[in-house]
Specification:
alpha/beta; Nucleotidyltransferase, domain 5; 4 helices; 33% helix
């Protein structure tokens, strides 16, 4: 049997605030991908949600791990590493990432990056435990986190 860890990725853009549209805009409908300084990654062992954001906009990507358990030794570790690899790929180009989640997936992702993806590991500026926030709550939490982080680092926060 083979291990299949190909993720399914769902991406959408959304604006937050009083003038925010009620529906997300498909990424394929936008000509340019949003360039952001910050992102928040919510990860568990089955899926990852990446929210790239600036002061006015949010771009979301969801990655789901597809696992088929086999009797082959170590297949779970290989599957997890492939999933973490796809998540790390999705963070390319982001300067600072806050990783959040419950349980061991967040620390497992950070450990994977430290060992196998040092560039991504350098992008991770924090690891926080959160319950199951909505997308809007997660972005608000991340914005507050990065304002404090940037202030402590002496970096001006983009407005």
């Amino acid at each position: 049997m083979r291990v299949n860890a190909s993720p399914s990725v769902d991406r959408h853009d959304a604006a937050w605030g009083p003038d925010a549209p009620s529906e997300a805009v498909s990424r394929s409908q936008k000509e340019n991908t949003m360039t952001t300084l910050h992102a928040v990654l919510r990860i568990d062992h089955q899926s990852a949600q990446i929210l790239h954001f600036d002061a006015e906009h949010v771009q979301a990507a969801k990655i789901k791990a597809h696992t088929h358990h086999t009797a082959q030794h170590g297949s779970t570790v290989r599957t997890e590493h492939e999933f973490y690899g796809h998540v790390a790929d999705a963070l390319a180009g982001v300067k600072e990432v806050l990783v959040v989640g419950a349980g061991t997936a967040a620390t497992g992702f950070r450990s994977y990056c430290e060992k196998h993806r040092p560039q991504t590991a350098r992008q991770i500026v924090g690891l926080e435990v959160v319950d199951h926030p909505t997308e809007a709550q997660l972005v608000a939490f991340a914005r507050r986190y990065f304002v404090a982080h940037d202030r402590m680092a002496g970096t001006p926060t983009p407005s």
